[in-house]
Amino acid sequence: MSSNTTKAGNFIRQIIEADRAAGKHGGRVATRFPPEPNGYLHIGHAKSIVLNFGIAEDYNGTCNLRFDDTNPHKENIEFVESIKQDVQWLGYEWNELLYASNYFEQLHDYAVQLIKQGKAYVCDLNAEQIREYRGTLTEPGRNSPYRERSVEENLDLFARMRAGEFQDGEKVLRAKIDMASPNINLRDPTIYRIRHGVIHHQTGEEWCIYPMYDFTHCLSDAIEGITHSLCTLEFEDHRPLYDWFLDTLQTPSHPQQIEFSRLTLEHTMTSKRKLTELVEQGFVEGWDDPRMPTIAGLRRRGYTPAALRDFCERIGVTKSDNFVEMGVLENSIREDLNQEAPRRMAVLHPLKVIITNYPEEQSEQLNAPNHPQNEAMGSRQISFSREVWIDREDFMEVAPNKKFKRLVSGGEVRLRNAYVIRCDEVIKDAHGEIIELHCSYDPDTLGANPEGRKVKGVIHWVNAADAIVAEIRLYDRLFSHPNPDSARDGQPWTAHLNPDSLRTLTTSLVEASLGEVQAGEVFQFEREGYFCRDPQNREGGLPVFNRTVTLRDTWAKIEQKSAAG
Ligand code: ATP
Ligand code: MG
Question: How many domains does one find in the chain?
Answer without folding.
Answer: 3
